Amino acid sequence: MHRLTKLYIENFKAFGSGQHIPLAPITLVYGPNSEGKSALLEALLLMAQSLHHPQSLQVLMVNGSLVSLRHFHTLIHQHNLSLPLKLGVFLQLDSESSKDSLQSVLARHDTEVGMVWEFQWDNTHEVILHRKTDIYVGDAVNPLLRIHAPDSPERTVQSSGDHHTGRMHEFIFPPKAHFEPEVPKAWAAEQHGTIPLTMFRLWQSLTERALNKWKPVVEELQRWVNLIHANPTLAAKNLRNLVEHYQGDIYEPFLDDPVAIFELGDPETIKSFAKVLRDSIDILSDPDPVHHLMWWGQYFSLYEAGDPWELRRKNQFLWSPDFSDLWYHFRSAIGTNYDNLPWGGAVLRILLSDWEYRMKMHKSQNESQNEGLWNDGEVLFELMNPKDLVDTLNGAVETIASHISFIGPMRQRFSSIVTNAEEDAVSVGLSGEQTIEILRRHPDKLDELNEALMQMGINYTLRIEPVLDSDLSMLSKVILHDNILDSDVAMDQLGYGISQILPIITEILAVDQKIVLVQQPELHIHPRLQAELGSIFAKGIAHNQYIIETHSENLLLRLRRLIRIGQLSPESISVIYVQKTPDGSQCSAIRLDQQGNFLDPWPSGFFEEGFDELFGGNL
After folding, report:
1. Could you write out the three-class secondary structure of 236-262?
2. Which of 18, 124, 466, 531 has the fewest CB atoms in 10 Å of its CB?
């Protein structure tokens, strides 16, 4: 399962300046009332319903099935409609895709990736506009790509289509969007200057993957070098025939220059072209990942104003260019070394275009031999292809959005008689309304629930039985058996505590590969049971991730104890304290050591009430 590692918010409700909030398998959010704790969960719910529910015509779905925030002016910081709203998520990818995919490489190196969206209120059209998307790889501060949305509200209308053209893709990469070419160049320069070991190893893997794919290209270029060396006259003739063959098929100003084409037939001229080929081979065989990192960053800023390929690269950089665009990777490495041979790049593009065509024809004739090497629509020359990267993040964020569940602070009381639902539930729901239905359909989960209740010291066993009357077959009876008194008790005759804890335990046991958001799990629950609930959450992180808004000290004490006895690692817990300041709410991360002790000071005024009540000063 993809795991959320950070939440980014800026100008959202009580939060002003941008903040990265670290998330772990279990994240506990503490703080005084009305300071912004709930806003963290609401930000995730807002993103989830905006990405996952295509029925909205607004690019940001303010009101939906997960959360209702009324209007943009109620969620923007200090109700200032001139401020930009930024929301984003960072995550670590799983490695379930093919071994050679970009996702698999990023997952193997535990590379954090992220997306941050910027929105703005448009007073003229009274809609929320998506301004830009920043994409991050291995660096949460400097974006690797920046995609600008067009300056019109047309992108607020939902487009239909599949995974690549539907809502998710439009949200990340709207129609008529363009990218900022200097951003990847700046990112590469930043990584080059202070490249950490983890990033070096990632780029080393990407380089090895690219070099492996480039081997057939190297062999083709070497074949031409050998031909030029052995018989420059024949090489010049063959190359000139090839260029003339592609006139009209490939856009190159060079093809409209008869003098340049005539010179191409000169054996001495063709020897100069051999240097282009040899240097290209050197680049494609260079094992140094730092070199390729810099060349990759420069590749995006090669297109100058007036360049016939500038518009294509700027506006369609996510769509697969021809394999012949490999020349631009060479240019990024070679620089201005070939001013005396201005047509060298054009000829190389034609040579590689012809070779790509022959390879595709060969693939169609012998599919199995080339399986995994040549795929139509896949760019093979990029170390980290922007389209692959965006599609990988697109799928990952879509998965995250569709796997968020939310349990609110007030779970409903259960009746002794419930109506059976026609369809299975995927979550207990906001108020726990689907709890009984999940347990009815999954008896194994009901058994696990009863076992958990026993382990927590709750001396009741839950049973769900059909109503025997044939006219009432759509109903079920919910029965609690008191194990101490050995008698059945009607569900609605018990207090609130059991109805508050059952949905939480059921969600932990029944759902899989989910990000579960929970508000105030401790409500109406005895302090000892709050601690026991910590143990239940800890067992659940093998399958799910939990983000919990709470005031419970007992819950945290149990998790700290589990760290101390070695059942949890400190990295599996993130403790966040939210506190309001004159500049807006701020989140402080409180780290834990191997003994479960705090590495950072706990903010004053929280978990100190008992001490102050006994030994404090004036009332």
Report:
1. HHHHHHHHHHCCCCCCCHHHHCHHHHH
2. 124
Strands 26-30 and 573-581 come out as parallel
Tokens of 450: 């009863």
Residue 169 confidence class, pLDDT cut points 50, 70, 90: very low
Is residue 555 predicted with pLDDT exceeding 50? yes
Sheet with 85-92, strands from edge to edge, namely: 19-22, 3-10, 85-92, 112-122, 127-137, 145-148, 178-179
Tell me the backbone φ, ψ of residue 580, rounded to 5 degrees.
-80, 140
**Cβ–Cβ under 8 Å, residues 517 and 67:** no
25-54: b or e for each residue (b if 16 or more CB lie within 10 Å)? bbbbbbbeeebbbbbbbbbbbbbbbbbbeb
Amino acid occupying residue 59: V
Higher pLDDT residue, 42 or 349? Answer: 42
Per-residue HEC secondary structure of 100-138 comes to: CCHHHHHHHCCCEEEEEEEEEEECCCCEEEEEEEEEEEC
Q: What is the DSSP letter of 204?
A: H
Distance CA 618, CA 604 (A): 18
pLDDT in tens, 204-256: 998 888 888 788 888 888 999 999 999 988 988 888 888 777 766 655 666 66
pLDDT over 80 (residue 417): yes
Q: Look at residues 3, 57, 52 and name the one whose alpha carbon lies nearest to residue 26.
A: 3
Maximum Cα interatomic distance, the chain, rounded to a whole number of Å: 104
